[in-house]
Specification:
Blueprint: E1 10-17, H1 21-29, H2 31-37, E2 44-50, E3 57-63, E4 69-80, E5 84-92, E6 95-107, E7 110-118, H3 122-130, H4 133-152
Antiparallel strand pairs: 1-7, 2-3, 3-4, 4-5, 5-6, 6-7
Amino acid sequence: MEENVIDSRVLTLVRTFKAPRKLVWEAWTQAGHIAEWWGAKGMTTEVAEMEFRPGGPWKFVMKAPDGSSFISEGVFTEIVEFEKIVFSADFKPYTEGVSITVRFEDQGDDTKFTFSVAHPTEEYCREQERMGFMNGWGSVFDNLESYLGKLTS
């Protein structure tokens, strides 16, 4: 199975969120939700474009407290409702040309969440890891966990 293949170009984070899968899915697929949690701590996010369908573009503008902006954008390539989202992504100027796969699985009343990023080369993957991939995305998913907590309390 594809999930068992070890790929030297892929970095993966796995979390369990104390929220039902449908809610975690909605947090990932609805612009109003995304604006509440996407980005590093202290940043705000504007969903500039989001056509949630295969072939649909997405573009988020993240603003830092100092006023600087960062663009993240790509195209949705595969969507399996409540199970999987695959999309291309460019996070300029830090990361470009990656493919992200997000999986959602029931784990009792909680949701097992698997986030994998495939990089064009093994070297680029290692560079992204050294630049703080785990801490950076970990911070984003801390925001998501906090946001889901507010929605479920």
